[in-house]
Automatic annotation (TrEMBL):
One MF term in the entry's GO annotations: basic amino acid transmembrane transporter activity
Gene Ontology CC terms, in alphabetical order: endomembrane system; fungal-type vacuole membrane; plasma membrane
PANTHER family per record: MAJOR FACILITATOR SUPERFAMILY (PTHR23501), VACUOLAR BASIC AMINO ACID TRANSPORTER 4 (PTHR23501:SF191)
The keyword Transmembrane appears for this protein: yes
Topology in membrane: Multi-pass membrane protein
Name of the protein in question: Uncharacterized protein
Main location: membrane
TM regions (residue ranges): none
Keywords (A to Z) from UniProt: Membrane, Transmembrane, Transmembrane helix, Transport
Length: 160
């Protein structure tokens, strides 16, 4: 998306566009990790509360939430309950990520396509580059006159 944004910006607005693009990318990354972690911990706590009951269950749930390696030290029946809770919580996080990817795709749809071979629009205060047409004509004329010659060493090389 950053390339789509930059193609539509005039040259004098590029630094601002790049800066804002990087800002929103960083905020999205940090926010995505934070929200995913919150979804995971919330769902994990709810699932563990549902599955593990009895005396000292709160202390056990807290230990399981704080250290995933603690699950391996649990008795097999409680270990299975904790693993199932982790499984359901991770599915919730992946569902959240899939929904966010879909939202990002939908938000991107209104961005118009633009061919990258065209020059960006100039600001109203800028004058269009008068030499750009003559430069492209000179380059085209040079490329049309270039021909390939086979030298005696067997390699081809362009000449003018």
């Amino acid at each position: 998306m950053i390339i789509a944004m930059l193609v539509h910006l005039p040259d004098n607005q590029m630094p601002v566009g790049i800066g804002l693009g990087q800002l929103f990318r960083g905020v999205g990354q940090v926010g995505g990790v934070a929200i995913s972690s919150a979804v995971f911990q919330s769902k994990l706590e709810a699932e563990l509360q549902k599955r593990i009951t009895g005396p000292d269950s709160q202390a056990l749930i807290t230990k399981i939430r704080q250290n995933a390696r603690y699950v391996a030290t649990l008795p097999p029946d409680i270990q299975a309950l904790a693993q199932e809770s982790y499984k359901v919580s991770l599915k919730s996080v992946f569902f959240f990520a899939a929904v966010m990817a879909l939202v990002a795709y939908i938000v991107r749809l209104p961005i118009p396509d633009k061919h990258l071979d065209s020059r960006p629009r100039a600001d109203k205060g800028q004058q269009p580059d008068k030499n750009s047409d003559s430069d492209s004509q000179d380059t085209q004329a040079q490329s049309e006159t270039a021909k390939v010659v086979e030298p005696s060493n067997g390699r081809s090389s362009p000449t003018m």
